[in-house]
Amino acid sequence: MNGIISWASAICIASIICAISEFLIPKGSMDKTLRFVFGAFMLCAIVMPLQSTISGIKINVDNIIPQSSECNSAKDTLKQQTISTADDNVEKLCEQSLKENKISFNKITVFMDTNADNCISIIEINIYIRESDKNQRNKVINCIQKDIGVIPKVYIVEDE
């Protein structure tokens, strides 16, 4: 509370000094320059006490910056989410490619991973087709290889 009182009194004293000086100095060509100087003086009178108050505030940065284990956990989560999203997108591309070529399938699974450079790569694409469609096995392989660029593994499952 004493800091606020001393700050307010410093501003009052500075404004009184500026007002008296403005009355005592004759009007003329120096009028604009003096107003600028008085304005700078008032600005200093306002800011200088705040500087000592602000420098007295201590901020504990350790609580603000997240710990490295939290960052690693977030990075791992983001990495897994990215791989999962890419995985879903490749599955949808495979589905779209097979549907465009009028090939029926039961299920598509995609396995992906990242390397040391954080590049996502497709490890394996598995496509499950019915036994009644096993004659389309080569068509499935050629279609996915052409559209996705990966040779899939085609598994034949029993008809339901």
What do we call the CATH topology of the largest domain?
Histidine-containing Protein, Chain: A
Q: Count all strands and give the number.
A: 3
Helix content: 55-70%
- Mean pLDDT, to the nearest integer, reads 81
Enumerate the spans where pLDDT stays under 50 for 5 or more consecutive residues.
none
The main sheet comes to: 3 strands, mixed
Tertiary shape: rod-shaped
What's the number of helices? 4
Radius of gyration: 37 Å
Q: How many structural domains does the protein architecture include?
A: 2
Assess the beta-strand content as a share of residues.
Answer: 15-25%
Structural class: alpha+beta
Q: Strands of the biggest beta sheet: in what spatial order?
A: 1-2-3
User: What's the end-to-end separation, in Å?
Assistant: 83 Å
CATH architecture classification name of the largest domain:
2-Layer Sandwich
CATH class descriptor name of the largest domain: Alpha Beta
